[in-house]
Design goal:
Rossmann fold, alpha/beta, disordered C terminus, 6-stranded mixed beta sheet
């Protein structure tokens, strides 16, 4: 079952005299339970594409379907409701509310949906347990490490059981140990909860946790590789080969 369908999406900036084509006729699908990475050098259009999928921005042309619904045709009220109910977000900068504890930050997304208070408690603890952050639920963001904050943000994203989790450079502000813990958490959410994840990254080590990678160059799909039966290390080296062809950045974590 296709959770996400991107159909001939284009995104332009500027005017006729100075037009920049950030996304150029991009089409792909993401099935339920997939863990897909989008890679590309800085300025390749990968973040613009994610912004269109996440409804932060709107495509100039083309259609984006999430769970069969064309989000490019929704008005602002319906779009806000759709975003709350169907999408989970994990950003590079955590975006936690400083005046709320970890528990309250995670619970907020459920409260907005009108979830029963008893169920909120259960859901928060369940997802916190999976992400190994039960011990920080009473702490405020300033009392947590970067890795803990990002796992709280991840718990907030997944607590509402969204159709699609969108992650934009989720390891960008983390040290290597915290990044590895977060990526292992993503892996568990994908395998144990069948969470559908679409992650933008420029980092090959981060991308090696995905099951499929779509490479973007100059706003177009340049290549696509599937992990299949590869070990993560083997997949990492295949990613590096494509990144080298792209002429973009790579990672020497291994």
């Amino acid at each position: 079952m296709s959770i996400l369908k991107v159909e001939n999406v284009e995104k332009y900036y500027g005017n006729k005299g100075n037009l920049t084509k950030a996304v150029d006729k991009v089409s792909f699908e993401v099935e339920k339970g997939e863990y897909v990475g989008i890679m590309g050098a800085s300025g390749s259009g990968k973040t613009t594409l994610l912004n269109c999928i996440s409804t932060i921005d709107f495509p100039t042309a083309g259609h984006i379907y999430i769970n069969g619904k064309d989000i490019t045709t929704l008005g602002s009220k319906k779009l806000a409701k759709f975003r709350r109910e169907e999408l989970g977000f994990v950003f590079q900068e955590f975006n936690l509310l400083d005046t709320l504890t970890a528990f309250e930050n995670i619970a907020l997304s459920l409260s907005i949906l009108g979830t029963n208070p008893n169920e909120i408690e259960m859901r928060v603890r369940e997802v916190a347990s999976r992400l190994e952050i039960l011990d920080v639920l009473k702490k405020y963001p300033y009392q947590m490490s970067g890795g803990q904050k990002q796992r709280v943000a991840c718990a907030r994203a997944i607590a509402t059981n969204p159709s699609l989790v969108l992650a934009d450079e989720p390891t960008g502000a983390l040290d290597s140990k915290s990044a590895k813990m977060l990526l292992e958490s993503f892996e568990r959410l994908n395998s144990e909860l069948n969470a559908t994840i679409l992650m933008v990254t420029h980092d090959a080590f981060t991308a090696s946790y995905c099951k499929r990678i779509i490479f973007i160059k100059d706003g177009k799909i340049f290549n696509e590789i599937v992990r299949g039966n590869d070990t993560r290390k083997e997949f990492f080296h295949r990613i590096i080969e494509v990144v080298t062809l792209l002429g973009g950045e790579n990672s020497n974590v291994f």
